[in-house]
């Protein structure tokens, strides 16, 4: 078979298949060119998901007629002034975007340099370059791509619906807008919710305002600042509280030197940092920018430039994980402010439903005879309303007025326990509802982790070793990690087929149900034992142990126990959520409560 040189236009179309696989990829290339050109405003318009029209208008530096003619030639770029491939400081440099787009669509470019008296235009259709002609133009560059992939019909068959393609364009543009908050970004078109985000000021306040537009107005007050440096690598940004999570990873935004990426290493680092505080099926919300010497990272490992390769990936991953964990630990007991808002919305829904004629009011059960011990908030009974059953708390916290200093504490002063599950606390400007089991579960877990890190978890030998019958597969799984379990204070050994013998247990679990504990540990290992690092597997086992030693729902607490629980929560890292990622408390502000009852 004869070897022949491919036609230049065919070469461009092959390249387009690598670089421009969908409309969002074309928009990405054009937007990155605008950013590299110093644009302060970028406007994007699409039609039919970008298949019929993509228009990108910027106010950047523009091009001279000579540069315009050269810009649609393959491997021509202004982004490698010295030809150094190891010190790339721009978002793109391949020199393939415009010729690749022009080979599979109708491409029209109009551009004008700021100091020039007039602009110039150029049209490329099916890879055929037209003549550069004078044209009326504002400073900057305007690029229109019509009928994308019209000259490669097979590519059109692989596109998704117009709505799906439009959403991909929107998601891409939002990621760039977050990474570059000082630039104005706008998007309009069919099948997409348009936006127009003004340029923000340089600095953290401007970034937070841009993040509030992208991640929701509640994000800033539920975000933790991150700024860590190690060996010339800096990681900056804002990370959401663990309880401020979402069902998809769309809220995870990552950048490297201002380049938005979906890098596997960085995504893994984020998952690892939040693994202990966010449910496995949920995702945090954050924006992190890894800033480093361009020579430390290779941005040329992926045709779409969505992934990068670091010279020392372990250093970067360790910095991201340790930085996020430190920020989360420093947040202490903080939980999301949206918890109280959701609680109030639930109350409003009940009140609204009660006001509808079609809704039947629930019948309250008869209350037990009133006794002083059933007073929840230390207030005397004012009246006996005929036909109205008076609900009572399970236990009093304080009959007397609470200590003034306790009211000023973040979680306030315990006032009552209701349904033998929830603690009601009073603060200076509101109230807090605490799930006693969820809160204590996190406290025990953090205590066990700290104990393991310091001296190892204290263990206690059983007077009579306990035999636990298991499925043979579960028993083998436990024996395989017996040495690791011993480091957690749980000493086991094989006891025939399908059974293990427990000789020692953590001192903190003395007197607990070891049968159930061992079975739950086996279930935990079945779910997490073959994935993740050893530390993560041990953390899952510790979380299981902590659950067994926690104050259970249904247990009455004395007033001093309630207050002690609140004070310990305030000084314990990550106590705003339980080991499963659920919030341990919600806070209601007095102003909001008064609005609920029409007092304001």
Describe what this molecule looks like in 3D.
The structure is a single chain. The protein is α+β, with helices and mostly antiparallel strands. It folds into 3 domains: 8-197, Heat Shock Protein 90, CATH 3.30.565.10; 204-330, Ribosomal Protein S5, domain 2; 371-379 and 387-600, 2-Layer Sandwich (Ribosomal Protein S8, Chain: A, domain 1), CATH 3.30.1370.100. The protein contains 18 helices and 24 strands. Strands 1, 2, 3, 4, 5, 6, 7, 8 and 9 form a 9-stranded mixed beta sheet that branches. A 5-stranded mixed beta sheet has the order 10-11-14-12-13, with helices on both faces. It is elongated. The chain starts with 7 loop residues before the first helix and ends with a helix.
| Radius of gyration of CA atoms, rounded to a whole number | 31 Å
Query: Count the strands?
Result: 24
Distance between the terminal alpha carbons, to the nearest Å?
A: 86 Å
Give the uncertain stretches in residue-range form.
356-392
Q: Which second-level CATH architecture of the largest domain applies?
A: 2-Layer Sandwich
Q: What is the CATH T-level topology of the largest domain?
A: Ribosomal Protein S8, Chain: A, domain 1
Total of DSSP H or I helical runs spanning 4+ residues: 18
Shape: elongated
* Fourth CATH level, the homologous superfamily of the largest domain: MutL, C-terminal domain, regulatory subdomain
Assigned CATH class of the largest domain: Alpha Beta
Summary keywords:
Ribosomal Protein S8, Chain: A, domain 1; 24 strands; Heat Shock Protein 90; 600 residues; 3 domains; elongated; nine-stranded mixed β-sheet; single chain; Ribosomal Protein S5, domain 2; alpha+beta
